[in-house]
Amino acid sequence: RSERAKKIYQTRLENEKRQKMESLLSSSSPLLEMATQDKRQRPVNRKFYPPKQPTPQDAFLRIEYALDHDKSPEIDDLHILLQPQRMKHRRELLLRILKDRFDLRGKCVPVYREKGGKELGNRGPTLEFGTTCTIAQLGEFIVDLLEKADESGEETKG
Fold first, then answer.
1. Long-range contacts of 30-36, Cβ-Cβ distance < 8 Å, separation of 24 or more
2. Which of 8, 69, 108, 123 has the most neighbouring CB atoms within 10 Å?
3. How far, in Å, CA of 67 to CA of 58, rounded?
4. DSSP letters of 68-131?
């Protein structure tokens, strides 16, 4: 029994040494470094990317692609994205546009409160967090910002 245990222990030690050497050799390998890089950093070499169909999912991908490449998203894509339907991560993408392109975060979305069908006097809009206002309010604000940036000819942050 002890002979068998000694043999198993020696085998385990040899396997640990071999694994350690393999990990050292492979960690200096450029292939491993490429595999561990973030997907967004790798260039997409596909001919049909970003997709060109007028669907909300494709508009989502085009907007993400534009943000990843430090470009402003198209206003038409935002209108498509804001169509009323369920979509995962839409609010996060809109907040990313605010943060990346306009350096806005926190309580920055103007919201006009209506009381009895009329606006609240001359106080103007109140500001709300982008995480608590509706998707429609957030999207409308971003479209307004992009249109103003296009009219003035300014390049937004990025």
1. none
2. 108
3. 14
4. HTT-PPPHHHHHHHTSSS--TTHHHHHHHHHHHHH---SEEEEE--EETTEE-TTS-PEEEETT
For residue 36, the tally of other CB atoms under 10 A from its CB is: 8
Contacts of 143 (CB under 8 A, 6+ apart): 75, 78, 79, 82
Q: Which residues contact 110 (CB under 8 A, 6 or more apart)?
A: 124, 125, 126, 127, 128, 141
Amino acid at 134: T
Residue 56 in contact with residue 80, Cβ under 8 Å? yes
Question: How many residues are listed for the chain in this entry?
Answer: 158
Q: What is the pLDDT of residues 59-96, one digit of tens each?
A: 888 899 889 888 889 999 999 999 888 888 899 999 99
**For residues 111 and 133, is the Cβ–Cβ distance under 8 A?**
yes
